[in-house]
Design brief:
This protein is α/β, with parallel strands linked by helices. It contains 18 helices and 23 strands. β18, α17 and β19 form a beta-alpha-beta unit. α3 packs parallel to α14. It catalyses: pyruvate + ATP = phosphoenolpyruvate + ADP + H(+).
């Protein structure tokens, strides 16, 4: 009975469903990652995306050169300045992605039951009979009966814009396939995915390394999305590469799980990575459709217990061309939040979709509604139980801060941090209110000069904690998160001790 009672602690009244949604200062606590591209790179559109709730901008290097992405990023900086909305930068690697190369960019019509040849000869033109690809080892990797999927940009699963092939025979380096459904491929680049086959290419390609060490370093990227992560070693290798670049040793690595291989080694990858992106587009091809939800629920739970962000992709594909999501998609977004997802990643919907701002706005509203009925009490107990006893000093402080904030109905938690670890631990316990991180830089010396280090480019300060707290409170008031007579929970270090205190604000 007790377990059932816990599950029903937040009954949903039918009346509340009929009430209009109340606008919050934060569109949602869940983060929204928007992929910037052709339809979302002007200052005006990016500003709209930021106001609608985008807090991470993703730059996908599967297409476009560094100059193109730099131009988009400069526009993002202008939009951040004008809207005063902070936005992190995520660089998404190409990795061992297989691609069909269509230099002429003419649409290619493929008919069911006809044959098409996949060839590594990129000098050939893409036609209905032959498709040149960027990988010379395909003929060695596949065999008769294997399934190959080809789709534009990101797989939509739409039967008219993506095609299923079955390998009929291998002829030298060419692979002859029978087409399973009629479709038209449009654009210059199509991604190719072979179901449950190991591709012998490095996870961090030479092209990726070049982009990271130039564009990534120049722009001090916040996140690296590591495409097609298959082993923990992939993450270690990427981390080692970033640390050698110096400027990027604070950059977080999010492992993108896209196939059976990554799924098989999920636990070890989770230990090494800073966060996980569940790439449901590719996973939906490697896994039978009825198994995708199981992986999502298991992976998100593991991420939650490890205190690492879980990002879910491919939620509102239909909004690439439509102003409203389907009912199933809206439910899917809400269920992702109720499962414990920390962020929703939008790909084609904002990259080349017709309604990038509206998509972010609607996804944010759905997340906010789901958060209202998220069973935080059950989640908190489960997380604490998983951590076990004795808790580490920091873990204990973080969980106490969240518990205190919920008990006194605080409007915000303010945390003083230098590395961001304390703030991330507080977020692990899913507070129902926003967390404001105040970055206190650490002072270092090499005997010749003093320097500051911190998770961000923190300003040097000789101020006391109290004066810094006042700055944080003033920022909260200006932002509209904190009002007169609100209670605020503060988590800070005093000497060698960590302190959680509750402040009641006056007028």
């Amino acid at each position: 009975m007790q377990a059932n009672h816990l599950l029903l602690e937040e009954p949903i009244r039918m009346a509340s469903i009929l009430e209009p949604s109340k606008p919050n200062f934060f569109p949602a606590m869940s983060k929204i990652v928007g992929t910037l591209g052709p339809k979302s790179r002007s200052v005006e559109i990016i500003s709209g995306c930021l106001k609608a709730g985008m807090s991470v901008a993703r730059f996908d290097f599967s297409w476009g050169d560094t100059d193109y992405h730099q131009e988009t990023l400069e526009n993002l900086k202008k939009a951040v300045k004008s809207t005063k909305k902070l936005c992190a930068v995520m660089l998404d690697t190409v990795g061992p992605e297989l691609q069909v190369v269509n230099k002429s960019e003419r649409a290619i019509s493929l008919q069911a039951a006809a044959f098409v040849v996949l060839t590594p000869d990129q000098g050939k033109e893409a036609t209905s009979e032959i498709l040149p690809i960027n990988f010379g080892g395909l003929s060695k990797a596949v065999g008769k009966g294997d399934t190959i999927f080809i789709g534009q940009y990101l797989f939509t699963g739409s039967e008219t814009t993506s095609v299923w092939l079955e390998v009929a025979e291998v002829k030298g380096e060419d692979v002859v396939c029978v087409i399973k459904n009629s479709a038209t491929l449009a654009g210059s680049l199509f991604t190719l995915h072979i179901s449950q086959i190991h591709i012998d290419l490095p996870t961090l390609s030479d092209k990726d390394k070049e982009v990271i060490s130039t564009w990534g370093v120049r722009n001090n990227i916040d996140f690296l999305s590591l495409s097609y992560t298959r082993h923990a070693e992939d993450v270690r290798h990427a981390r080692d590469f970033l640390s050698k670049l110096g400027d990027l040793n604070q950059t977080q690595i999010f492992a993108k799980i896209e196939n059976i291989e990554g799924l098989t080694h999920f636990d070890e990858i989770l230990q090494e990575a800073d966060g996980i992106i569940l790439s449901r587009g590719n996973l939906g091809i490697d896994l039978p459709p009825e198994k995708v939800f199981l992986f999502q629920k298991a992976a998100v739970y593991k991420c939650n217990m490890a205190g690492k962000p879980a990002v879910v992709t491919r939620v509102v594909d239909s909004m690439t061309d439509n102003l409203r999501p389907t009912r199933a998609e809206a439910t899917d977004v809400a269920n992702a939040v109720l499962d414990g997802s920390d962020a929703i990643l939008l790909g084609a919907e904002t990259l080349r979709g017709l309604y990038p701002v509206e998509t972010i706005s609607i996804v944010g509203k759905i997340c906010a509604e789901a958060e209202k009925v998220f069973n935080q009490e059950l989640y908190f107990k489960r997380t604490g139980k998983y951590v076990g006893e004795p808790m580490s000093h920091l873990e204990s402080i973080a969980s106490s801060a969240v518990r205190a904030a919920i008990n006194v109905k605080a409007s915000v938690i303010i945390v003083f941090t230098s590395s961001g670890k304390a703030a991330r631990l507080i977020a692990k316990y899913r507070p129902t209110m926003p967390v404001i991180s105040v970055v206190i830089p650490r002072l270092k010396t090499n005997q010749l000069r003093w320097s500051f280090t911190g998770a961000f480019q923190a300003e040097s300060t000789n101020s006391t904690n109290e004066s810094v707290l006042k700055v944080a409170l003033d920022h909260g008031k200006v932002s509209g998160v904190i009002k007169s007579h609100d209670r605020v929970v503060v988590c800070q270090k005093v000497g060698d001790a960590s302190v959680v205190k509750i402040i009641e604000l006056e007028d």
